[in-house]
Structure formats: structure tokens, C-alpha cells
Design brief:
The chain is an all-alpha fold. It is 68% helix and 0% strand. It has six helices and no strands. α2 runs antiparallel to α5. It starts with 27 loop residues before the first helix and ends in a 6-residue tail after the last helix.
């Protein structure tokens, strides 16, 4: 058994899902206080999985990277938004989502002068509608990955085989980091 693990793997602490800070056991005030750190970690996660996707497809063409990064953002933000809306009272959910929206918009505006918030969030609403059309109350990771892959294929039409092969795997890992284990199908 020890031979199957890396030398220090047994010392690693299991990572807590990013969304754990918003569990139903966390009071609203604590959830609000956690937003700035969560927003930073959220954007870091989006960046990391976008880079991982690019490495997995062995692409040296950086032209599609912004599209990949946006699609990862839209996928993960949809799951975040859905979880908050399902787990929190409507007023509390609305407050958390508004504050998160501001934090993310400010962060993205601060790192990219070309960022156009109105256009970005308009596209997000389109993506959210596509994700919602495929789901009931419990989200199906398989359906999320299917919609995610379809959007990547539409935006990066030159790489369909690479995208189809790698998008579900990398997006599944990103969702696992955000949510932790997944009971749904």
C-alpha cells in the first residue's frame, strides 16, 4: 500500500471544498465575512484549472485562453450561485450573491483593463440559463460537464477532439475542488 502512495502523500491533509465556508451550519455574518477570501480563492481556482486545461491539450496557442478561463468561471460561478440559492434564505442568498458579484467584478476589472463587466455578466446569464435548462434541484455533474464542453467547443471550434477529451476531466476536477465529493450522477 505504501508503495502506491508518493513518499509524503500520507502527510497531506485532505483539502476542504471551497464551498464549505458557505455550509448551512455557517451563520450569515460569517459567510459574508468569508466572501473576500473566497472570491480570491475562486478566481485562483478558475485560473489554475484554465491553465491545467491548456497544459492537458498541449496548446501553445494562447488565443483561446481567455475563452477557456471565462467558461471555467461561468461553470464554477453557476454552481456557487446555485448552492447559495438552495442553501440560504432568499434574502441572505441575494445579499451574498450581490456582494460576491461586486468583489469579482472589482477583481477582474483590476487585473484586466479590457474587462467589460456588463458584457461578461450578460454572457454569464446566458450560460446560467443553459445550465439551468439541463437541471432540476440537485445538479447533475454529468449534465454540467456536457453543457460546459459544448460551450468550449462552440468557442474553440478548431480543437473539438482535444476539448471533448479533456474538458470533462479538468472541469470535473475543478467542480470537485469547489464542492468536494459529489453524490449526484
Amino acid at each position: 500500500m505504501l508503495n502506491e502512495l508518493g513518499v509524503f502523500d500520507f502527510l497531506k491533509k485532505k483539502k476542504e471544498p471551497l464551498l464549505a465556508v458557505f455550509s448551512t451550519a455557517v451563520p450569515e455574518a460569517d459567510a459574508i465575512a468569508a466572501l473576500p477570501d473566497f472570491a480570491r480563492k475562486f478566481l485562483h481556482t478558475v485560473q489554475n484549472y484554465s491553465i491545467q486545461f491548456y497544459r492537458d491539450i498541449h496548446s501553445h496557442d494562447s488565443g483561446g485562453f481567455p475563452a477557456v478561463k471565462e467558461e471555467f468561471f461561468y461553470l464554477l460561478y453557476f454552481v456557487f450561485e446555485h448552492r447559495i440559492q438552495c442553501d440560504r434564505a432568499p434574502n441572505a442568498a441575494e445579499s451574498l450573491l450581490k456582494q460576491m458579484h461586486v468583489l469579482l467584478t472589482d477583481a477582474m476589472s483590476g487585473t484586466d483593463r479590457a474587462f467589460r463587466a456588463e458584457v461578461f455578466w450578460s454572457v454569464y446569464r446566458e450560460r446560467a440559463a443553459a445550465y439551468v435548462s439541463e437541471h432540476g434541484a440537485p445538479l447533475s455533474r454529468e449534465k454540467l460537464l456536457s453543457v460546459f464542453t459544448a460551450h468550449l467547443l462552440a468557442r474553440l471550434h478548431d480543437w473539438p477532439k482535444l476539448i471533448a477529451y479533456h474538458s470533462a476531466a479538468v472541469a470535473g476536477e475543478a467542480l470537485a475542488e469547489l464542492e468536494g465529493g459529489f453524490a449526484g450522477g
